[in-house]
Amino acid sequence: MVPLLMAENGLLARRRGHTELSVYLSKIAGLRPVTAICEMLDAETYSALSVAKAERYARQNAIPFCERTGPCRVCKGTLIMNIAIVVSDFNEEITSRMLQVARERASLLGLGVVHVSHVPGAYDMPLVVDHLLRNPGIDAVATLGAIIRARQSTTRQ
Predict the structure, then answer these.
(1) Which terminus of the chain faces fewer neighbouring Cβ atoms within 10 Å, N or C?
(2) Which N-terminal residues, if any, form the signal peptide (predicted)?
(3) Using CB atoms within 10 A of its CB, is residue 148 exposed (0-12), middle (13-18) or buried (19+)?
């Protein structure tokens, strides 16, 4: 294992690789900027696994697969991302505030909110997310919802 460090002078300032991107995504997710990266190798050729083979492997093993087609957009050393937000109208008094905060936070991070979809509830989100991620102008989708757990019953069954 070889430790990799991102340059302190900003995202993608010198390199534009997956290390910098993974650290950046960790930071904007509010996580510690620590990631584990591995390269998948083809067992037959010992070279990097092709996208088609990686996608097939992911599908066979129920692993989420994400492919970024085309180069990442970078401006002045900052990653440019267009995001969509899917927000549940269930518990709207809470989710409307969540949407407001998400828009504010996206703006502070330099993310462009290019689309907002409202859905009745959390069960309706996956179909909308799947549709939005097929749009090449959308780099990521955030989902917002609030499920409030009912009080537990005092009777035992």
Answers:
(1) C
(2) none
(3) exposed
* Integer CA distances (angstroms), 20 to 12, 25, 40, 103, 108, in order: 6, 9, 19, 24, 19
d(CA 37, CA 149): 37
Backbone dihedral angles phi then psi of residue 130, each to the nearest 5 degrees: -55, -45
Answer whether residue 92 is part of any domain: yes
Nearest to 86 by CA among 127, 139, 28: 127
User: For the whole model, what pTM was predicted?
Assistant: 0.50
> Domain range for residue 101?
81-144
- Residue 124 CA to residue 74 CA, distance in Å, equals 33
DSSP string over 54-72: HHHHHHHTT-------SPP
Q: Domain check: are 4 and 63 in the same one?
A: yes
